Amino acid sequence: MTIDNPVRFSFLVNDVSRLHSMHYDRLMKPYDLTRSQYWVISNLTRTHGDGMTQTELAEYMSVGKVTLGGLIDRLEARGLVERHDDPMDRRSKRVYLAPEGKKLVKKMGVIAREFNAGVLEGIPDKDIQTAERVLNAVKQHLLALDA
């Protein structure tokens, strides 16, 4: 099966992502967080308390180490993340959520759920599941290009 205009699909995905990000930025503004800073915090929740090395986090977020270092500096200054020596590699630092960062994640989780519920309101669950399958398939195809 072919799509008459596959470029339109890509533009639509980009537009939805851009608009979602723009509105999500507004939700984070009262917490004085940028999307990039929240992305650091959000990714650290996936480690189940084990933290991540700065290198792992930079690779996972597809950002440079210097860029990530600046984000972590600002988050650490606000008491949202902490850096500790990596017990397996003394040259590395692991980044962890600080207690204040964990509190913020809980608040933002509630806000995100409410926001997403509003964004998806009126769309049948079946359609949402189909969209998720399609986007996951596209993601896998894109990841395969890097392999």
SSE blueprint and pairings:
Layout: H1 6-28, H2 35-44, E1 52-53, H3 54-61, H4 65-77, E2 81-86, E3 89-97, H5 99-119, H6 125-146
Antiparallel strand pairs: 1-3, 2-3
Helix pairs in contact: 3-4
Describe this structure in words.
With 147 residues, the protein is mainly α. It is built from 6 helices and 3 strands. The chain has a 3-stranded antiparallel sheet. A hairpin with a 2-residue loop joins β2 and β3. The radius of gyration is 18 Å and the shape is globular.
Runs in which pLDDT lies below 50 for 5 or more consecutive residues are none
Total beta strands: 3
Q: Span between N and C termini?
A: 25 Å
User: Mean pLDDT score, rounded?
Assistant: 89
Q: Specify Rg, calculated over alpha carbons.
A: 18 Å
Main sheet specs: 3 strands, antiparallel
Tally of contiguous helical segments: 6
Shape by Cα distribution: globular
Query: Approximately how much beta-strand content do the residues carry?
Result: 5-15%
Describe the structure concisely.
This protein is 66% helix and 12% strand. The protein has 147 residues and is mainly alpha-helical.
